[in-house]
Every structure is written in C-alpha cells, then in structure tokens.
Amino acid sequence: MPKHPGSSEGHNLLDSSGCARIASLESILCTEELQRRPRRTPEYDKESRALVALAHALADSPQSIFQTLADKILEVSQAGSAGLSLLTTHDGGKRFYWPAIAGRWRPHIGRGTPRDFGPCGDVLDRNTPLLFRHIERRYTYFRPVTPAVEECLLVPFYVAGKAVGTVWAVAHDDRRKFDAEDERLMTSLGEFASSAYQVMASLDLLRSEVTERRHAEQQLRDREERLRRVADSLESEVRFRTQELRELSTRLLQTQDEERRRIARDLHDSAGQIVTILSLNLAGIIPHVKENPAVDKAIENSQELVQQLSREIRTLSYLLHPPLLDENGLSEAIQWYAHGLAERSGLKIELGIAEDFGRLPEDMEVAIFRIVQECLTNIHRHSGGKIAAIQLSRDAENALLEIQDDGTGIPDHTLTALRTKRSGVGITGMRERVRHLNGIMNIESNANGTKISVKLPVSMTATSA
Questions:
Q1: What is the pLDDT of residue 348?
Q2: What confidence score (pLDDT) does residue 200 get?
Q3: Average pLDDT for the chain
Q4: Is domain 324-464 given the CATH code 3.30.565.10 in the classification?
C-alpha cells in the first residue's frame, strides 16, 4: 500500500484537475445497516472450531496467533480479505501496521495506515465497530490498492482493556454484505485472540529460558556444516565430530523434553487461570441478564465454549507432558494416551502391557512414551490402517516394545531410506532416543502393515542411573 504523507497533507489530496475530492466520513459510513440487514443463522460449530484453532496456535506456535486469527476471520466471514491492524509502539502510535492478513490482500502484510486519517483510527476514536463502504472515496491512498474495497467491517482490538488496534474484514464486490452476525463473530474471535496474546506475553519469559535449546540447535547446524566440508578427506575427524553430534542430539532431546514439561506447566497454570477467571466472570453476569433471553442464551453458549476451551487446554498440556508419566509410570501414561487418541481419531488401539511391568528409570520411561506417541501419530496420519497393537514387556535384562498396524505399509524406497538413516525426522528422533539408551530398534513393513520393535537394556541403564 502506498505510504500516506500524514494528516496535514492527507486532507488536501487533489485529483488531476486540482479539485479536492475527499468524501466526508459520514458519507462512507453505513454501520446502522448491520442491524437492518437479515442476520444469518449463527454458526456456533464453525466458531468453536475457530476458537480451538486459536488455542492450538497458542500451544504450538504462539507467534502465529495473529495470522491464525486473520485466517479464521476470513473463513467465518467469507470475506475477500481479513486481517489485524495494531498501533506502532516505536513512534508513540502514529501509525497502524498490519502484522497478519489473509485472503487477497495478503501481499500487503507489514504495511498500514496513518493513525489520524484512516478507518482504523476512526474505529478507535469512536471505540465501536464501524462498517464502511468505498473507503477510497475519503482515504484516497486506498485508490491504487487492488482489489478495491466494496465494504469493510472493523471492530476494536483490546489488550488489557485498551483498544490498540482493529480486526477487519473486507468485501471486494457487492455480492458480500456484512451483517450483525459478522460483527459478533469478529468480536468473539478478537477477544479470544487478545487473551491469547496476553498469555503469549507471559510466555516470553519462558521462551527466554529455552534459549539453551536454540543455542544447541545452532551448534548442531554448525557442526553438521563442518562435517560436510571435511568428510571426504578427514575420516578420523568425521568420527570425532559424529560423536559430538550424537551428544548434542541427546542433549537436544533432553532439552525438548524439559521444554515440553515447562510449557505444559505454564499453559496449565497461566492459560488455565485465565479461562477459569473468564468462566467466573460469565457466571457473575448471569443474574443480571435473566430478563433478556437472547443475552442469557449467548452467555450460556459462551460458558459452553469456555468449558470446551478449558478441556482443550488441559488436553494440550497433558499431551506435551502427561503428569501420569511422572506420578504413576509408563503403563498408565500409555493407556491414557492411547485411550485419548482412540477417542479423537477413531483408531482402534489394542494394548498388551504386563500387569507387573513396574517402573523403569525416568529417562527410559520418557523415551518409550515418546516413541509410542510418535508411532501412533504416524499410524493415524499416514498408514491408512484402522488398528494399532502395542505390546510392552520386560525380562531380567531388557524392556521390549512392539507397535504394529494393519495399514498399507511403507513403500520400499522409503523403507530403505529409513533403515539406512537417510530419511524421516520422527524416525531419526526415535533412533536417537534408543541409541542414547544403548538399545536396538528395527522396522519391518509390507503390504499388510508395519511393525516397529525396540529393545532397551534395563540393567545397564539402571546401573548408570
């Protein structure tokens, strides 16, 4: 988008004939039409899925929360473009910038509009949602922007009770007309994203503490590059560096496990507290809205969404690091995970775990659980099978794990690459865990399915622990 020169020049923009051609604000506002237009049936399922997607973004990749919000606004509003505008902070909020855009205006990410002469500024000045038509008639710097704006709906975006930007959706042709349901959905998703943004800020401290993991990853990449350069002529150097890489890989896996534990705890404590407070706030509103059935129903729906979100956060926290693994051991943790995955995916999981299996050293229990988690995820996503069978046993010297599915099997070329350690990030991580514990892993696959076998020496690990 072309940069605007500022309000003093913006109010005096001229056309080619030298005549001022800037429309008044009221001539492009049509906010009252939101209530007059037929309101489409609320799509609570779609709204719930959007909220769950935002929750997943918060858990998996907090920095993507704004882009996820833009994507979901585009989806639920069926607009041509959607995005988020935030006030700049380095200059005292003189401009809005667009950190996230979805749809046809996506190439304009990072650009923005002036604070004192633009639709976003008008929304913050009035502190209310506004519906515009043909904004280029007043804000002439939009005239070169394509595709053009037919209608634009903007709602304030609040952080800690202060309006710091807008959430917006744009229709690029006259077939799409926004209504009050669009305003409700955008406000709802914007409020959740705002809460998530505040949680993300609290996680910044946590991210500063997984600095160690980033350093390890950088060291790993540096060593890999050096190994590639000397591999042809310095065989002894290769062996030495390979050992270093293995040690780094082991530390990286350990760091990742520790990070998952910390994030799970922080997600449960921070986000869980916010959801609890939100639930209490909604409960406190109920006695005051009984006379308004529509508001009462909306609050009831919101409470249901809060409960669903609470369950999602708890599930995500447990998936990152199940407390059962620390408290009750490997057997119960695997049973809990398999039961949950079966409910979510429809995959039938058959468990064969000896009743007297007992406890293993902590690092071995974590390794076996992560291997089971990775295998079941791959079976669900890639195998095409309906059944997964898990056998976990031990003898005097070893812990034995077998995981088998009834899928279509792994193609021969892929299986060869996996066996020669030339493919598969997930399989590589499994091999590193097994290697660190001085164990053996084997992969067998044909048209009837795939079986992964792992044998870990218990006595040696227990002695070293």
A1: 95
A2: 66
A3: 82
A4: yes
